[in-house]
Amino acid sequence: MPGTVTNSAVRKRKRDDAPKMDGTKPRKAPKTTSTGQSTQTRILHLEEQILQGREHYNNIVELQSLVQRYEAKPRMATLAAVGLCRVFCRLIAAEALVRTGSATAGEAQVVQWLKGRLREYDESLLTWIGSPEAAQESTSLTLLMRIVKAETSQGSKRSEQAWRTETSTFFKLIQALLERTNADGARQEFGEKYADEYDDVRFYTFLAVKQVLKTSSAHSEEIVGGAVDLLSHMESPPDSDYQPQTWYSADAPSSVPNNPLLSLATHRKAAQETWLAIFRSPLTKDNRKRLLTLATSQILPNFSTRLELLADFLTDSFNAGGSLSLLALNSIFHLITHQNLDYPEFYTKLYSLLDEDILHSKHRSRFFRLLEMFLRSEHLPAALVASFVKRLARLSLQAPPGAIVWIVPWVYNYVKGHPSLGFLLHRPHHPAHRIYSTQSKQGSDSATMAVKDPFNMLESNPNITGAIDSSLWELETLQSHYHPNVATLARILGEQFTKREYVLEDFLDHSYASLVGQELGREVSGKKGVEVEWAIPKRIVMEEVGEGQELNGVGRLLTGALEAM
Amino acid sequence: MPPSQLKALKTRLREKGITAPSKSKTQRKSGSGHANPKDRHTALQQIRDDFNPSELRHVSARPAKFPSTSIYNSTGSGKYAKILHRPGVSKSAGEDMRRQHLLPEMRRRNKTGGLIDRRIGEGDEGMTAEQRAVMRFTKEKEGRRGGVFDLEGSDDEGGLMGLTHGGRTIDELEDDDMKGSGKGSESEDEDAGFLVKKRRRDEEEDDDVEEADEGQPDVKKSKKEVMQEVIAKSKLHKYERQKVKEDDEDLIDKLDAGMADLLPLLRSQQAPPPPSAPIEIQPRNTANEAGMKMDPERQKLLDGMDRAQADKDYEKRLRELAQDTRAKPSERTKTAEERAKEEAERLKMLEERRSKRMRGEQVADDEEEEQGRDVDVEDVEENAVDALGNEEVGDDAEEFGFASAGVEAMQKTREKVRHVDEDEFDFDADLVASASEAELSDQESEADDASVPGEIMEAEQEQDEEDEFVNGILGGANATPITDSSNTTIVDGSGALAFTYPCPRSHAELLSIVDTLPVQQLPTIIQRIRALYHPSLSAANKEMMSDFSRALVDHLAYMAEHNQPLPVAEQVIRHLHSLSRTYAIPIAEAFRTHLLAWHERPGGEPSKGDLVVLTAIGSIYPTSDHFHQVVTPATTLMGRWLAVNAPSPGAKMVDERRSRVGALMVGLCVRWQALSKRIVPEAVRFTLRILATIAVTRTSSTEVAEHLENLTAMAELWKDKTAFIEIFQPFLPILRNLGSTATPASEHLTTLLGPSRQTRRPLLLHNHRPQPLRTSNPKFEEGFNPDKHYDPDRERSDAAKLRKEVNREKKGAVRELRKDGAFVAREELREKRERDADFVKRERRLVAEIAQEGRESQGGGGGRARGKGRR
Fold it and tell me: What job does the chain carry out (chain B) (predicted)?
C-alpha cells in the first residue's frame, strides 16, 4: 500500500516532524462529529496536515473521496476540491511530483503514488465539466487551470511537457471541453478567461485541439462541434504587429531568447493548422454555418500561406447551396478583394443565388447587405448590373413588402450610378434600341407595335440576359402595391432623380412585424376620424337566390375556411 | 472788424434768451423763462459748438461709399446718418473715465491692505451720486423706525389713537395752536416747529401744491397728515362708488322686474314651463303690489336659498336660452326629379371623395361634415325624418336597407309621420299608433313565414329596424305601457325576449344577456338595446353605446369561435356598420385590438374569429383607401399569413386548412382591391404555389375550384398592369398540369395575356421637364445698397456678420488698451516729474540749509572758512 510506504518514508527523512505528530490527535475529535461546520474545519485541517509532511499524504485519499461525492454533498466536495487543488499546487511547486535522479526507490514510489492521485483528482474534476450546474463547471475549470498553471511553471522543459503531453492536465482539459457536448458554458469561460488573455494558453489550445481532432475518431462530429464552439469563443487573433507578451505559466518564454512562442508567425501557424484540421474533419451543416460566420473575422487573418485550402473549403460550402452559399459569399468576396484570390464567375454564382426564396428567407437583409457591397463598384459592366436589377424586380412581384422596400431604393441608387440603366425606366422610341428593332421587321408602324421583353429569366450568365434592353414594368406595377408606404416608395422611380442616393441601411430591416406593429402600435387618431363605407350592403356573406338565401362567394370561402379550422 | 468774441457770445446768449435783462419779481412769476432746463442745455450746447468749430468733426469715420449708387449716404438719412463727432469731448470723457478708474487701480498696484469702503453704493459704478444718497437716506430711516419710543412710527398703526390735546388730535391743533402755545412738551414743540418751518420754506421756494402732495411726504409732511389725507380720500371714493352702485342696482332692479314678464315670452316655443316658474311669479306679484321692485331670484336668495344653488339655476337658465332652437322655415317638399338629382349629386360627391382617398389625397373637412349628415340611397323619406328631429335614428335604420316584406308597413308609418305638422302633442300620439302597427306586422310576418329560417331572419330584421326607429322615441317618452304590450306580443312569437335590457358595456355583460337566448334573436336584442340607449335620449348613453359597440365586435369574434350561424353574424356586422357612423373610433379600435391579438399570436395563425373580423372589416370600411387605419394593417396581416404559409415548391401534400384559409384570404384581398386594383404579391405567390402543389398531389376539386376562381378574379383585376405578363405567365404551365378542371381558367388567362402583350410599351417614366440649374448668385436687387450684404447663404452671411463684429470689437479693445497704456505712461511720467521736482526742491532746500548752517558756523566760529569760501 502506498500509505504504509509513505509513513515509513517520512519516518526516515523528516525527523523534525515528530513533535507535530500530536496534530493527529485533534484530528480524530472532529471526525466523530459530522456536522457541516466540523467537516469544513476537518477539510482545512486535513489539508494543513498534508502540507506538513509526508506521513499525512493519505489524507489526499480521504479528500479525494469527498470530492467524488459531489452529488451527495456538493458544498463539501467543492471545499475538498479547492483544498486538494491547493495541496497539489504546493506539491508541484515543491517538486514533490518529480522523480529526481538521486531518488531512492521509496521516494520514487511516493512520487508515482502522488502522480496517480493527481490523475485521479483530475479525472474527478473533469467529470464536473459539462454538468448542468454552472457553478460546478466553473469551479472545476478554475481549479484545473490552476493546476495547469502549477504544472507549467516548473522550468521550461517540464512546462513544455505539461502543455503538450497527452497525459497532462491541460490536454485532458481540452479534450474534455471538446468531447462534452453540453459544456458550452465551460468553453465560453475558457475562451474568454484564459485563451483570450494569455498567449501561451491560446497557442497550446490550438495545438491541443488539433491533436484531439487527430487522435479521436469516434463521435468526431460532436468533437468538431465542440472545437468550433471553443474556437469561436476565442477572440480573433491579434494584429500583425502584435508581440505575444502575456503568459499564463510563471516562467515566461520571454526569458528564453529565440523561443518560437515569441513570434506571431508561430501562433498563426498553429491556428491555421488547427482550422485546417477542422476543415478536414467531417462537418455537420450547423458546424459549417458556424465556421462560415466565423470565417472573415477569425479564420481568414490566420491564413497566410495556404489560402487555396481555405478557398476550397469556401467553394465547397458555396456549392452546397441554400443559406450556406450565402454565408460563404462574404468570405469569398473578402478573399477576392483582400487576398487577390482568383475566383472565376463570382458574379454568375451570385446571380444564381437570386431565386424565389431569397426574398423570403430570414437571411434576406444579410444577403442584401452583401449584394449591395458586391455590386457597389461602378466599374462593373452596366449589362451585369441591369441583369441583377431586372431579376430582383421580377422576383419582387411575389416578394414581401420588406424586400420591396429595399429593392426600390437600391434600384434607384444603381440607376443613379450607371446612367445607362436609366433606359430601364425611360426608353423613348428609337430604332437603335433592341427592344424596338426586333419588332420593326414585322410591322410597318413600329411605334404602335407590340414589344417583346428581351430579358431572359432563364439565362444564368448575368452578362447576356438582355436585361439592359428591357424595361422595369415590374417596379412600375408595384407603384400600386397594397401597402401605402410601399406604393409611395415605389413611386420615387417615376419622379425626378434629384436625391443623390438613398441610405440603404435604413431600408434593410423592415418586415411584416415592423410594418404591422408600427401601425397598430399607434393610437387611432381621433382628429381625422375613421372613414366608414357610406353604403351598408344588404348582404355580406349571403345572397338571395330566388326565394331563399344562399352563401355568396365570400360566404362560401368563409364557411370553407371556418370548417377547415 | 468783427466784434470781439466776448461780445459775440453775449449777444448770442441774449438772443437765445439764456441771459436776459433782470426782470422784476412779478414778471418772473408770470413769465415763461426757460422753464425747461433741457432746452436751455441744448441752446447752450449749440452756442458752444458755434464758438468752437474745431471741436466738431463732421466727417464720418467711414469713407463715403459709392455716392452715385448709395441712396443712404448722400442724404444722411439712412443707416449711417451723419453723426457729429466731438473728438475733444469724447477724448476728455475718456480721460476722465481713466482718471477715475484706472488711476486708483494704478496707484493701488503692488500694494496690499488698506481700507475697504463699505458705505452704501460706494464703488458701484451703476449708481449716480443721487441714487447713492437716496439709498443711504432710506437705510438710515429704516434703522430708526424700530425705536420703541418713536412717536411718529406708532401713529402709523394707531391711526386715531394718536396724541390728542383737548379732545382734538394734534394735527388739528398743529396749524394754529401749536405754534404759539407752550403747552406741549418740549420735544413735540420742537418737532412741530421744525415741520412748520420746513413747510414754510417749501412754500416760499415753490408754491406748487401738487408737488407737496405727491412728492416726498416723509420730508415735507408728517406721516400722520398723509395718512389722514389718504383716509379722507378713500372715504370719498368709497362713498362715490357706493352711490354709483346703488344707482346701478336701482336700474338692474327695474330691469329684473320686467324679466319675469319677459321669460314666458322668450320660452313660448318650449314645452310647459318648469314647475319652478309659477312659484317664481308669485313673490313678484306680491312685491309689485307692495310697491317694491324685487327680482324673484333675488327674493329667493334673501329668503335663504343657497348661493351656489342660485348660481347653478342661473347658469342653467342661461344655457337654456342659448341653446333654444330658433324657428326654422320648414323645407319645402321636393319633386321627384329634384330628389333624384340631389341623390345623383350626392353619390357623385361620395364617389369623388372615395377616389380621392384611394389616390391618397386629403379630403377637405367641410365635405366630411356633409358626409356625416348624408343619408343613404334608399332614403326616400328624408324630409320626414328630418322633421322628426331624430336624424340619426332614421339614418341608421334606413341605411340598413329595407327589403320587400317590410316596406309597406314602413311606408305607412312614414306617410303618417309626414302628414304630421310641427305640433308636439300630435306627434307623440302618431308615434304610438305607428308602434302598434309595427307590432302587428311583426306578428303577421312571423306567423306567415315561420317555416323558412332565412325569411324569418329577414322579416325580423326589417321589423327590428322599424322597432329601432320607433322604440328609440318611445323608450324615452313613456316606456312602460309599450313595454307591456310588446312583451306579450313577442312572447307569443318567439319565446321570452325582454323588451328592456341593461346596456351591456363589456363582452361579458353582453354574453350574460345573450347566452340564454336563441342565437337567432341576437339582432333583435341589439336592435332593442340600440333603441333603448339611443344617444339622443341621454348624454350618458353615448358612452354606453360606444362600450356596447366594442362589446359587439368582441361578440362577433366570439360567435365565429362558437360556430354560430353566419346569417346572424352578418346582421351583427351590419349593425356594427351602422354603429360605425357614430362610434367610428371605438369600433375601429376594437377591430385593431383583434388584429393586434392575431399579429402577436405566436405562429401568426388566425383564429376563426379573426376570419370573421376580416370579413367584417372588408364590408364596413372603404378598402380602396390609400391608407386606412383598420384596412391597411388587416391587409398587411393577410399578406404576412399568405407569405408565410405558401407551400414550398417541393411540398408533397396540401394542408386542407391552409388551403381553405388561404383561399379565403386571397378572395378577400381580391375583393378589397376591386376598386383600387392594387397589387398583392403574396396572394399571387400563394395561389401559384398552392396550385403547383395541387397539380402534383391531385387533391379534391372543390379546393382547386376556389383557387382557380381566385386566380381568374386576380387576372381580371390586374389585367391593366404593365407587369401582367410577368405575374401570370408562370401560371400557364401549372394550369396545363391541372388538367380539365383548369381549362376555363387557362383559356381566360391566355385571352387576357394576348392583349397585354400587344399593348405593352417600354416604360416612359421620366418625361419630366428638365430641371433648370439653380442660380443663386449673382442676384439683382431692386434698390441695391452696397453696404448691405446680399448673401443668399444664410449661414455664410451670419458667419460674416459675426466675424466682422469680432473684428470691430477686437480693434476697439486694442485701441482702448493702447489708450490705457498711454494714460498710464503719462501719469507715471507726471508722477515722476512731480517726484523729481519735489526732490529738486528738497535738495535745494537742504543745500540751502546746509549752506546756511555752514555760513552760520563760519559766521560764529570760523569766519576763516567763510573767508576762504569767499575767496
Answer: Involved in nucleolar processing of pre-18S ribosomal RNA. Has a role in the nuclear export of 40S pre-ribosomal subunit to the cytoplasm.
- Contact: A480, B566; criterion CB under 8 Å: no
Q: Is B452 exposed, middle or buried (0-12, 13-18, 19+ CB in 10 A)?
A: middle
Nearest to A557 among B584, B664, B762 (CB): B664
Rounded-to-integer distance, Cα B134 and Cα B282, Å: 69
Please list every residue in chain B whose beta carbon sits closer than 8 Å to the beta carbon of residue A559.
566
Distance from CA of A502 to the nearest CA of B (A): 19
Which residue of A lies nearest to B720 if distances are taken between CA atoms? A477
Whether the bond between B778 and the residue before it is cis, its omega within 30 degrees of 0, is: yes
Which residue is closest to B707 within chain A, CA to CA? A557
| Secondary structure of residue A241 in the 3-state scheme | coil
As for the ipTM of the complex, it is 0.70
* Residue B108 burial (C-beta neighbours within 10 Å; 0-12, 13-18, 19+): exposed
Q: In chain A, what residues touch B616 (CB-CB under 8 Å)?
A: 540
Confidence of residue B144 (pLDDT cuts 50, 70, 90): low
Query: What contacts A177, CB < 8 A, 6 or more positions away?
Result: A129, A183, A186, A187, A190, A226, A230
Q: pLDDT digits over A245-300, tens only?
A: 666 766 665 555 566 666 777 777 777 777 777 777 777 777 777 777 777 777 77
Tell me which chain B residue has its CA closest to the CA of residue A424: B763
Q: Which residue among A453, A476, A484 sits closest to B632, beta carbon to beta carbon?
A: A484
- On whether the CB atoms of residues B648 and A524 are closer than 8 A, the answer is no
pLDDT digits (tens, 9 = 90+) for B831-860: 999 999 999 999 999 999 998 898 888 876
Residue with cell 379573426: B610
**Residue with the three cell numbers 535522479:** A101
Burial class (CB in 10 A: 0-12, 13-18, 19+), B377: middle
Q: Which residues of B touch A451 (CB under 8 A)?
A: 760-762
B865-to-B547, B634, B806 alpha-carbon distances in Å: 135, 134, 76
The pLDDT of residue A239 is 63
A397: closest chain B residue by CA: B681
Q: What φ, ψ does residue B12 adopt, rounded to 5°?
A: -60, -45
> Cβ contacts (< 8 Å) between A529 and chain B: which residues?
368, 584-585
- pLDDT digit string, tens, across residues B385-425: 333 333 333 333 333 332 333 333 333 333 333 333 333 33
Q: Are strands A548-551 and B164-165 parallel, antiparallel or unpaired?
A: unpaired
